[in-house]
Amino acid sequence: xxxxxxxxxxxxxxxxxxxxxxxxxxxxxxxxxxxxxxxxxxxxxxxxxxxxxxxxxxxxxxxxxxxxxxxxxxxxxxxxxxxxxxxxxxxxxxxxxxxxxxxxxxxxxxxxxxxxxxxxxxxxxxxxxxxxxxxxxxxxxxxxxxxxxxxxxxxxxxxxxxxxxxxxxxxxxxxxxxxxxxxxxxxxxxxxxxxxxxxxxxxxxxxxxxxxxxxxxxxxxxxxxxxxxxxxxxxxxxxxxxxxxxxxxxxxxxxxxxxxxxxxxxxxxxxxxxxxxxxxxxxxxxxxxxxxxxxxxxxxxxxxxxxxxxxxxxxxxxxxxxxxxxxxxxxxxxxxxxxxxxxxxxxxxxxxxxxxxxxxxxxxxxxxxxxxxxxxxxxxxxxxxxxxxxxxxxxxxxxxxxxxxxxxxxxxxxxx
Length: 416
Prior knowledge:
Layout: E1 3-7, E2 12-17, H1 22-31, E3 38-42, H2 48-59, E4 63-67, E5 70-74, H3 85-90, H4 97-104, E6 107-111, H5 124-131, E7 136-140, E8 143-147, E9 155-157, H6 163-173, E10 179-183, H7 189-200, E11 204-206, E12 213-216, E13 225-227, H8 232-245, E14 247-252, H9 260-268, E15 272-276, E16 279-284, E17 293-295, H10 307-315, E18 321-324, H11 335-340, E19 345-348, E20 351-354, E21 364-366, H12 370-382, E22 386-390, H13 392-396, H14 402-408, E23 412-415
Parallel strand pairs: 2-14, 3-13, 9-10, 17-18, 21-22
Antiparallel strand pairs: 1-22, 1-23, 3-5, 4-5, 6-8, 7-8, 10-12, 11-12, 14-16, 15-16, 18-20, 19-20
Helix pairs in contact: 1-2, 1-7, 4-6, 5-6, 8-10, 8-12, 10-12
């Protein structure tokens, strides 16, 4: 079964616990390669991207023990530098192993990473930046070989903000010789989580949360226990789902302090949001209000990962609005599928006109990437009749069990 069936037109009512963050857990797991010994990672989400990352770690010689959301990674026997192509090919985040492996074993051979089709996302800047730290890169058809005797600190003046490049350079720099400066560095909460994990292990990092990171290399990191924070994107997805369907839901553990732009936009669209000590109460009693303009950008701006779910909510709002996508050029791949359901949307380059006032109807639609797939599920909740979202495996990359969570929130939804 690789599809989800949604019986739409029903208001939501219930509560669900927000899982650990996908975008925080993957770089933290990569960072365990830098630490000889056993690290315990708590609240690690049970999603396919994490399974692929753990498989990659095992292929490199790590011993991995998983007990639900607790993962223990022992890296004493790391020796390999060649990762299985099938796991690398399905997960873009495998590129972050590059910096950590170069720091640990000095040699990496890998295929170019894959993942969702949401934009070009070339790895040129990763390789160019690592060359500044003494890495030699030899590219081949479909992949590359990277080697270094000892990583050396460098000053990186990046041409644009990149979460992936920032993560890779942090991982490469913490055990490098000398000082590394990254500017402009990504400020996303997941970058802050990675730096927090490394500092707990003994890394010397300053500027966390700013656009300028300074990393002074240390000789050794120590094993630690660490808890992954809740996933702000999953919380935002279920918030958007409630806006689509209407109702009242409680999102336990939702990290509201990292969701300011999302909560602000949802409030403008008429969602009633109450921040409680253990989560968010969301109330959407009527059709969402239209909003003139949604603009994505680097944190703390509105996250590109939530653009698709909120586009679904805007399609049923009470007036037209615009979506401007400034991060990934292919985030609008969901548009033809929403139009099959009756949405009024027109795209021109990086902007989409969302007509609003649509009465969505059930249809068979296809997920082509992770967040777009989740957005189609949210749209299905608002639609009259039955919606089937195919290619569920894309959604499984980032959501532990979206059908269970939405059933807890009162949706009529099942695997198909």
